[in-house]
């Protein structure tokens, strides 16, 4: 089944998404997500100029060979731009294979390992009171796991909070340059344990709670925070330190039994290898989109399973619904699935462009059985929401030093 055409769409129904559509000679098409927040157009150029011309006429069924061709064949293997581009091609090909086989993709992986996908939602707020109010609402909605993020008192902008915005906690809109935020490790360390103390006092220990440090601490600071949080029994602490130096996680591991999660920025299996085989982490957060597609992610899951490490894919609002649906199939299959990050059902604009259906019942996400990923993309609707240049914020310490955002 020959590949006839590859189209790349960039649209902004609330935020920017890069979507790939591969069309075969019999008219079957598949969808993939290539969104790389703040660097979207680099991925578009990679796909249109460097990938698409090589694939026209190739057999859409040869997913593994096409993946190797784009990864090894490029000579420049890894990097966020190239793996997002390869991932979208890989996802679109799996979608096509599912449609041609008349099966949901999870069937092609080996079938379901569970009835539904356990998700964790986000409870954010400007104050502890507001976070706890949102947590209460989510518990009533059936969530079994929730991530808590709270603005730091007297600090301009804290990761995960809204800063007065309604839809997304990351700033979006018509702004020409990255916004700047402020960070104080001292204020943070003094504040966060209180958030979890009050959450446990009010809601008890049945609800699983987690928190994203967003790589802002050093290993020894992170060790201290994880120890301070031990009484509140977190599901995990995410991105306690940056991942370039895997041994940072070894330091934390030696000090605390708070479980650790990381990997939303991993592009390859090799980024995760050292942490997994040393059992320094408990959850790998690599997404289908940023990890190079389903083809490498299933290998990552199998490798992680040898070391008791579970999958907890990244599910931020800057991954498109195509990625969410791919994660649904992956998570239904992966024997060592842990939990899926889930930020809700999207805005009317988003749901006008992407047609898919998921349903939350008792903290588990379900979908209908449809061939492929079970999602469609409305090209005409997408035209109504053109690309808007947009950046993630940058972060500075109080003295002006640039810090991890
Ligand atoms: O900041 O996806 O767990 N979620 C996260 C995300 C990331 C964004 C970066 O584009 O850390 O919100
Ligand atoms: Co994160």
From TrEMBL:
InterPro entries: D-mannonate_dehydratase-like, DgoD-like, Enolase-like_C_sf, Enolase-like_N, Enolase_C-like, Mandel_Rmase/mucon_lact_enz_CS, Mandelate_racemase_C, Mandelate_racemase_N_dom. It comes from the Bacteria. One of its GO terms (biological process) is carbohydrate catabolic process. SMART domains: MR_MLE. Pfam families: MR_MLE_C (PF13378), MR_MLE_N (PF02746). Residues 128-259 form the Mandelate racemase/muconate lactonizing enzyme C-terminal domain. GO terms for molecular function: magnesium ion binding; mannonate dehydratase activity; racemase and epimerase activity. This is D-mannonate dehydratase. It comes from Kriegella aquimaris.
């Amino acid at each position: 089944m020959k590949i006839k055409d590859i189209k790349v769409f960039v649209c902004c129904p609330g935020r920017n998404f890069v979507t790939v559509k591969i069309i075969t000679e019999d008219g079957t098409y598949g969808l993939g997500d290539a969104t790389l927040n703040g660097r979207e157009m680099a991925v578009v150029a990679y796909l249109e100029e460097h990938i698409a011309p090589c694939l026209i006429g190739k057999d859409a069924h040869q997913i593994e060979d096409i993946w190797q061709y784009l990864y090894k064949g490029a000579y420049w293997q890894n990097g966020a731009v190239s793996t997002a581009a390869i991932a979208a091609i890989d996802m679109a090909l799996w979608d096509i294979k599912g449609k041609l086989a008349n099966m949901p993709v999870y069937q092609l992986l080996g079938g379901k390992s569970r009835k539904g996908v356990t998700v964790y939602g986000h409870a954010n707020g400007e104050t502890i009171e507001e976070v706890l109010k949102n947590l209460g609402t989510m518990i009533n909605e059936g969530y079994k796991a929730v991530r808590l993020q709270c603005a730091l008192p007297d600090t301009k902008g804290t990761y995960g909070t809204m800063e007065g915005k309604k839809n997304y906690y990351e700033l979006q809109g018509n702004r020409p340059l990255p916004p700047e935020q402020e960070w104080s490790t001292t204020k943070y360390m003094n504040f966060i344990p209180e958030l979890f103390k009050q959450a446990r006092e009010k809601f008890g220990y049945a609800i699983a709670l987690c928190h994203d440090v967003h790589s802002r601490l050093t290993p020894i600071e992170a060790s201290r925070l994880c120890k301070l949080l031990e009484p509140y029994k977190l599901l995990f602490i995410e991105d306690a330190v940056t991942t370039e130096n895997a041994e940072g996680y070894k330091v934390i591991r030696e000090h605390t039994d708070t479980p650790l999660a990381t990997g939303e920025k991993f592009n390859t299996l090799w980024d995760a290898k050292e942490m997994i085989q040393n059992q320094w982490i408990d959850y790998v957060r690599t997404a289908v989109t940023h990890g190079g597609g389903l083809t490498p992610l299933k290998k990552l899951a199998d490798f992680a399973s040898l070391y008791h490490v579970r999958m907890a894919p990244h599910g931020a609002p800057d991954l498109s619904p195509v990625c969410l649906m791919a994660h649904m199939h992956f998570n239904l299959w992966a024997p060592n699935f842990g939990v899926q990050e889930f930020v809700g059902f999207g805005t009317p604009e988003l749901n006008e462009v992407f047609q898919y259906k998921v349903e939350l019942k008792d903290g588990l996400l379900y979908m209908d059985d449809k061939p492929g990923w079970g999602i469609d993309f409305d090209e005409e609707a997408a035209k109504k929401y053109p690309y808007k240049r947009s950046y993630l914020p940058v972060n500075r310490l109080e003295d002006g030093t640039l810090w991890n955002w």
